[in-house]
Design brief:
Radius of gyration: 18 Å
Shape: globular
Oligomer: single chain
CATH topology: Rossmann fold
Order of helices and strands: EHEHHEHEHEHEEHEHEHH
CATH class: Alpha Beta
Helix content: 40-55%
CATH superfamily: NAD(P)-binding Rossmann-like Domain
Number of helices: 10
CATH architecture: 3-Layer(aba) Sandwich
Number of strands: 9
Largest sheet: 7 strands, parallel
Strand content: 5-15%
Structural class: alpha/beta
C-alpha cells in the first residue's frame, strides 16, 4: 500500500468535479500537488479552498488537453515544479449527450482530442521520467462506459474504450520498470459533467442529467479512487447499481443489450 506523505501527484481536470474533490482529499494527506486544467482562475479557487497549511504544497499549472502539441513543454514544467513526479492522475475530459445519427464528426474528433490524445500525450511525455526513476504510477479516470456503450455517449464511450486499450498495453510494456497503471471507471457521480457535455453540434448540453443529480457525491468517489490506487489496483468500478452493467455485459450479453436499450441514462 502506497504512503502518500510527500508524494508529488499531478492531477488534470482539477478545476471541478472529481478532480477538484481529489485535490481536497489528497491535500489533507500531506501530498505535494500539481493541479491542472484550462481555467487558471478556477484552479486558484480550488487551491484557496484547501487548508492554508496545505497551500504551499500546491502548484498551479494550466494546460489544454486539446492542444497536444503544447504538452511536452507542460510536462517538463510539471517535473521542474517539485523536481520529480510520483503519480499522474489523468482525470481531464469532456462528455457528450447526443445521438449518433445527429452528431457532427467534429464533435467526435474534439472528444477524442481531449479524452484520448491529450491524455496519452501527457503519459508518453512522462514515461521517460518514470522509467529513469524506476517507479511511477498512472491513474486514469475512465468511465463505466469505457467498458460498455450507452445511448447518447457514443463518442465519449469510444474515447474511454480507447484509453483502456492503450493503458492495458502500457501496463504490460512498463512492468519491468515498476510503473503501475490503475484504471478507474466511475458511474453516475454528482458533478457538472452532463452540464458541460457536448451536444450534436458541439454546444454545451447545459442540463443536469437526472441520474447524475442522484449520483454518488464527488468527495466519496475521490476517496474510493485514492483507496484504489493506494492499494495499486489495476481496475476499479465506482458507483451504484450501474457498475454491475460491466458484469452483465460480460456474462449475459444478450440480456445486457435488452436492458441498455431501456436504461435511463439522461
Amino acid at each position: 500500500m502506497e504512503n502518500f506523505s510527500n508524494k508529488v501527484i499531478w492531477i488534470t481536470g482539477a478545476s471541478s468535479g472529481i478532480g477538484e474533490a481529489l485535490v481536497y482529499e489528497l491535500a489533507s494527506l500531506g501530498t505535494r500537488l500539481i493541479i491542472s486544467a484550462r481555467r487558471k482562475e478556477e484552479l486558484e479557487r480550488v487551491k484557496s479552498s484547501c487548508p492554508a497549511s496545505a497551500q504551499s504544497n500546491i502548484a498551479i499549472l494550466p494546460l489544454d488537453l486539446a492542444q497536444a502539441d503544447t504538452l511536452k513543454l507542460t510536462t517538463e514544467a510539471a517535473i521542474n515544479l517539485f523536481g520529480h513526479i510520483d503519480i499522474l492522475i489523468n482525470n481531464g475530459g469532456i462528455s457528450q449527450r447526443s445521438l449518433i445519427k445527429d452528431t457532427d464528426l467534429s464533435v467526435d474528433r474534439k472528444i477524442m482530442e481531449v479524452n484520448y490524445f491529450g491524455t496519452i500525450a501527457l503519459t508518453r511525455y512522462l514515461i521517460p521520467h518514470f522509467s529513469e526513476r524506476k517507479e511511477g504510477h498512472f491513474v486514469v479516470v475512465s468511465s463505466l462506459v469505457g467498458r460498455f456503450g450507452t445511448p447518447y455517449r457514443s463518442g465519449y464511450s469510444a474515447s474511454k474504450h480507447a484509453l483502456h486499450g492503450f493503458f492495458d498495453a502500457l501496463r504490460a510494456e512498463l512492468y519491468a520498470d515498476h510503473i503501475k497503471v490503475t484504471m478507474v471507471c466511475p458511474g453516475f457521480i454528482k458533478t457538472n459533467v452532463s452540464i458541460n457535455a457536448l451536444t450534436e453540434k458541439g454546444d454545451r448540453f447545459n442540463k443536469m442529467d437526472e441520474a447524475q443529480a442522484k449520483g454518488m457525491p464527488a468527495r466519496i468517489c475521490a476517496r474510493k479512487i485514492i483507496q484504489a490506487f493506494r492499494k495499486q489496483k489495476t481496475e476499479v468500478y465506482i458507483g451504484g447499481r450501474e457498475k454491475y452493467g460491466v458484469y452483465l455485459k460480460r456474462f449475459f450479453p444478450n440480456l445486457f443489450n435488452r436492458v441498455i436499450r431501456k436504461a435511463r441514462v439522461r
